[in-house]
């Protein structure tokens, strides 16, 4: 919007024309402190163990661990991380104002084939000096990760990009299940599903178990990959996640699949006789 090298207008003149303070042009966001990043890492680790911890319980837990924190600080950090406790209360996973939510369609449904049901979710990725967010699209029946994206914001765009890739590579599912987060109630997400003839299913409020398979994926990913590293950059993070996702899909034995990896079972039970393709990731 402001061109530092403009031949006729100085930075100050451009700021006045745009009705913004000149100092705002030079302002650089500081990001989170090292202490807050450490707290976010601890919150993330604890939330995997106790996803029912709300702000108050998480604050008490951190205090008992020797951290001098208050509820206001923990509330802000948990909101920044996109963490919402699973206890039963209204609005635990809030859609944006005006966004439509959909009923949960999987209760009592026998899921017995690939592409019958997909699911998606977002998780927080700590780095040494910051954090990112990861979304994945998973086939419910075979647990295969069909696509994923990494982003530095919680806008819906990176979720829609992952959805577009999965549909392009594997065709649309019959049902897509997510939580009621704003990314998944956004028009961009739901319109893409409706245009592809996909039925939309959303977890009940506070129903952690409604999307249990992708929650287990996050737990496995974090203990086998994320918490073993302290990545410096987003590019390092993407390379490591790519490597682990390929290992998970093609090599890691899955107990629910009789010890076979998800990609093998996906293609064995799929009507389309097509060799699997490595899950690609574009940020």
Quick summary:
The protein has 283 residues and is of the alpha/beta class.
Choose one word for the global shape. Answer: globular
Largest sheet: 5 strands, mixed
Number of helices in the DSSP assignment: 11
Q: Span from first to last CA?
A: 24 Å
Provide keyphrases for this structure.
283 residues; alpha/beta; Nucleotidyltransferase, domain 5; 3 domains; five-stranded mixed β-sheet; disordered C terminus
Structure notes:
- The chain has helices at residues 11-18, 22-26, 34-49, 55-64, 71-81, 157-170, 182-185, 187-195, 212-224, 234-250, 262-268; strands at residues 117-126, 131-139, 145-151, 175-178, 199-202.
- The relative contact order is 0.12.
- α4 (55-64) crosses α5.
- With 283 residues, it is of the alpha/beta class.
- It has three domains: 1-30, no CATH class; 34-81; 117-268, Ribonuclease H-like superfamily/Ribonuclease H (Nucleotidyltransferase, domain 5, 2-Layer Sandwich), CATH 3.30.420.10.
- Helix content is 40%, strand content 12%.
Write the layout of secondary structure elements.
Blueprint: H1 11-18, H2 22-26, H3 34-49, H4 55-64, H5 71-81, E1 117-126, E2 131-139, E3 145-151, H6 157-170, E4 175-178, H7 182-185, H8 187-195, E5 199-202, H9 212-224, H10 234-250, H11 262-268
Parallel strand pairs: 1-4, 4-5
Antiparallel strand pairs: 1-2, 2-3
